[in-house]
Fold:
Amino acid sequence: MDYHVTDQERDAYRRDGAVPLRGVVDRNWLEILEAGVERDISEPGPFFHGYVPDNGVGKFHGNIRLWENDSELGRFCASGPLVSLAAQFFESSKVNLFYDQLFVKEQGTENRTRWHNDLPYWPIRGSQIMSFWVALDDVTLDSGGLEFLRASHLWDIWYQPETFGKTSGHGEYERNPDYVDMPDIEAARNEYEVLTWDLEPGDVYAFHAMTVHGAGGNLRSDVRRRGYTVRYCGDDAVYDTRKGTQGHLQSDRHSDGDSLDSDLYPVVWQAR
Structure:
């Protein structure tokens, strides 16, 4: 049975830019995701990116667009429980799959995920663009739980994309003169309202593409932090390349302003 988004959850998302959803992904789907994660770690897909730990301890494994090369992950993205979530939040006539992404911080990986908002990195534009971050492990602040700046999706501030540390898999991002540099959030945390929630396996962070967010390292020695995220778009999302967008997400079949509907960004739900 699909997860029913309550009015309170929808209102919290619209107000705050992020909301936790409990028990969205059942054990059967979790096992499929866990197996997909291990397949990608053992034989990484073409868009693998790894971050070098600052202290030489631990490991960060990341990848994007896994669904295109892994049929089981593709099935989850196209027909799993997140599709219904997107349809309920967007209240649109259709839902497009944008892409999926894997974030694994193994035990003792101290690297932070820097504060950022997502949309400046992406070659799309619109208001109906969301991420659904599925926890595959118990997630707490000290294992790398996500933190969100409350209502930052309403600021309409596009922050300059930057790399997330010493990486393999992609280079520097082109500077966009229309963007601003991210301030030092950590040095002024008391000036912001920071939201965070612990998650259990199957719980989800749902958040807007403009919500500023980040995460600490996995300081735990007893638990991994495996997060699997799927990004979806609604009616008003269109293709839009700008300086600073990630090349691995761009399409050679779309022009700016085009509808996303295609094999690359497939329609996975339509209103009846």
Remarks:
- The chain has a mean pLDDT of 94.
- The first helix runs from residue 7 to 16.
- Residues 36 and 146 are 22 Å apart (CA to CA).
